[in-house]
Model the fold of this input.
Amino acid sequence: MNKSLVRYLIRRFLILCATFCTSLVAIFVLLRLVPGDPSDSLIPIGATPDQILAAKHLVGTDKPLFFQFTHWVTQTASLHFGNSLTSGSPIAPEIFARLQITIPLTVSAFLIALTLSIPTGIIAARKSSTWYVKFLNYFSQLGIAIPVFWVGLISVYLFALKLNLLPAGGFPATSWHDPVGAIKSLILPVLTVSFVMGASLTRYVKSATLDVLNSDFLRTSRSLGYSFGKSMWRHGIRNGAAPVISVLGIEFATTFVGAVVVETVFALPGLGSLLVKGIQEHDYPTVQGVLFVSTLIVMISGFVADILQKWLDPRLNKYSQGSVT
Amino acid sequence: MTTKVIIRRKLIAAAVAVGLAVAVLPSGAHAADPTTVINVGSLYEPQNLDNTAGGGQGVTEALNGNVYEGLFKLNDDGSVSNLLATGYTVSSDGLTYTFTLHSGVKFSSGKSLTSADVKFSIEKVIAPTSLSARKSSFGPIASIDTPNDTTVVVKLSQRSISLIYNLSYVWIFNSTATDFQTHADGTGPYVFTNWVKGSTLTLTRNPNYWGTPAKNGSVVFHYFTDATSLNNALLTKAVDVITSVQSPDALKQFASSAYKINNGNSTTKLLLAFNDRVAPFNNKLVRQAITSAIDRKKFLQSVWGNYGQVTGSMVPPKDPWYEDLSNVYPYNPTAAKAELAKAGYPNGFTFRLDTPTYDPHPAAAAFIKAQLALVGVIVNINSVTDDQWYNNVYKAHDFVATLQEHVNDRDLVWYGNPNFYWGYNNPAVTKLINASEQVRSLRTQTLDLKKANELIVADAASDWIYLYPQIVVATSNLSGYPINGLNSQFYAYGIVKA
Amino acid sequence: MRPISRNSKLLSGSILVAFFFFVAIISLTWTPFKLDDMSGGRLSSPSWRHFLGTDTLGRDQLSRVMIGARIAIEVGFLAVLIGILVGGSIGIIAGFARGKWDDLFTSFLDTLIAFPTLLLAMLIIAARGSSLFSGILAIGLGISSVFARVTRLLVKSVLSRDFITAARVSGTTWPRITLIHVIPNIWPTLLVTSALQIGVAGLAEASLSFLGLGAPPPNDSWGSLLQQAQNTVYSAPLSAIVPGLCLVLFVISVNLLADGIRFHFDQNSRVAP
Done:
């Protein structure tokens, strides 16, 4: 690692922090711009006007906005996310509990998708019209066209309802203290997500492989006498990997909170459902807390992807030659 | 001088017996098994554990009667019986109620129940900070005294015949506890053990319960946000019972002998609520015409098949003042057209229908639009989120007509409040409803409210489209579960797995 | 550039997409039955009168599926339009950025990508109510981050070429360079991306509908039909299968179209796409 790389990293890191803080503030403002009040979900039908005021007082929205802002800033700075406005229970333990489902789900699905899509994408890029190449191509075309909840519903129907091999949903009440139960509950969701993610990644790998195969580097390398495999490794991967890595970073990040559809089908109490519930109830602290965590993870994965790209190809600091579709 | 009101001591005993029998019905005598776990599937997760601080429908389902108890209990058949109160007396002027408490009752934390807890709990409901839906019904309470540990004296400023019934909703809290939103310390047959938000809520049998112990070892509520996942859970036996199935077509999956489908009574009504303050719905003829132009029976059939019923009013069958008024304005599009012409709209009119986005409201809106088009009335469907409905329709009264479901029982009394969101203002009805609370006998209350209901229906104040069915589906080896959905309570202590 | 007749993907993709377009346009003025017509009987089986049967209210399923095609096209094209306009503009500006501005823009883009489309959709619906356009706006803004990223990389790649240096040396202004050199070089790839994102938009709308945030009736998309069919899948399986198949077929067709367009413009390619 040379000096310019270190300087680049530091600069990126500082900018990262700045954008992170800005996005948190933007979220704070955005949430309060939207009509609706957290007290609305607490008030029953038949409530009197003074009960409506009492509810506002309970959640603190009757205080001036500036006060709410400073309160939130001091809370977040000490990494104390406060209590949910609707349930009154502390948010940080709740997020932590939900991460224990979302992180294993996303990471496992990601790893499986990666392991499957890299060889699949590379094979699919070859010109040969053997049956398995054709099949892989059709299969990956299908995989990116099916809505993820359909895949989930079909897998539940097959494996849970018909074959009775796995649970149809839910997560053990004792969480990871029941490791077998927890893993069983995660198998179908992980397979669902990795199927869809894998199909999408295959397309990127295939397109990157095609670009590499058509590129000058490879032809030069081959003409210099290197075998196909060695050429691929020395020049192909390095050049082709860059756009794939940047896509990976994004896919990983968006699956984190985007898995809410899978969480709904499989009744998993993950981070996505916490976010959705928080938004529906205007539970500002919860939404802010979840977005804090998810934005952090996205930024870190983007940062890591960046570093990987740089390490693989230092020329890539200003201009990229890779394919982008 | 107090008069011993014989308020059916014997009838109460009978009601309790009936209640227990209904709860235990098909099973016969099964001994309580401390190891059985009953898994209940539901779509209604509580928001928090305090029913005076916005806990919502879910907290009633999970905790009412299971963890928390009241002075009185609302049974599955709609009757009210003693629970923490052994009995009560009323003064002859109806303004002083004296309740006697059971002795030897303990909260799950070990603290003994005293009258101070009862006073604390009632005051929690009527406090300025209370978000309880029942707060306004306790308006007549003037003072609460506790002469000794087992006696509570409640003084009213005016008669309130529904007091006993209303008290069945007041949970008796531990007056020394501090956090009611995340902890639950009650006197009931279960102890609140654990709540994994978005997933499960666990209750374990209370070994020190003062009454008949629960027949099972623990109850776990599993929460889903999606009806299909809930049904799948029952199909894979991940849960043993679903507290309410949302659609009749889903029932086909449970048609085998492995499951039992129960068709009980609910108190949830689907309403086409007119804004009775503004044109054109401030005109009774118009409301009548619209009601006659919608074939409610056909719509019920399309959503629920053979389940549910058209009651024609706000009153569900489990309310004492129920009568079938579905034929007051039967389906008659020709008559509807004539009434519209008479009201000054011979060519119909256009109006905006604010429709919530969740089932069955969008389908209802589409159906109503199609039906009213046949009589020349154009409906503009405006989809609103819960928030928008709450702020624009309920609080600001900024609407012309809306669709909404109402869950509570005994909510006919809202028609006596001209400031309620639909703005129905009939002084005769208001007088009748207010007076009905201050009568001396339940029979008179029933007669008064029946009369009021008839007036409200004749006025076509709203269009009560249908009463939801309450469909509880369980595995066939399960028994002892409640089948009527009274305000979503779900007593779990009688459930037995064969 | 290859002759179109040898480009099987472009051909098949275009034909399929054109088919959906055709159905969508027809549905604007005619469907076998009107949506208000509830005379078909509840969940009746397919017949000559009702080709795909009826739903629980007695409405003709075929008509509803045809309208779904129109919604899919509307959502796809409008969302992508928003994506190109918003994302493309940001991407072009970011592409020209250098040094610390470049890093700033990269971070900014990362933040945009980090913002979940679902959250955006819920906020927009909370602000303007649940409608077809709320969904389109949310999806469009969500897609714009993809367009921004793609456009930025493309612009950077073009700007690194020699003829740009030549143009600058000869005094051409940046706006003119953008117009004459940058845009003509990036639009083919953007076209491919657009085609792909039409499919992405369709799938995103289906997910929103599944969560109950989709367009309310009468703008029922295939996603809404799927969500409503969950209850009736046992009594009327066709009600779930047909909308799903239509959605899958639609996405596959735009993907084929995208591949075909790329193959058409990719002069270097000697390998099949």
Remarks:
- The longest strand of chain B covers residues 259-274.
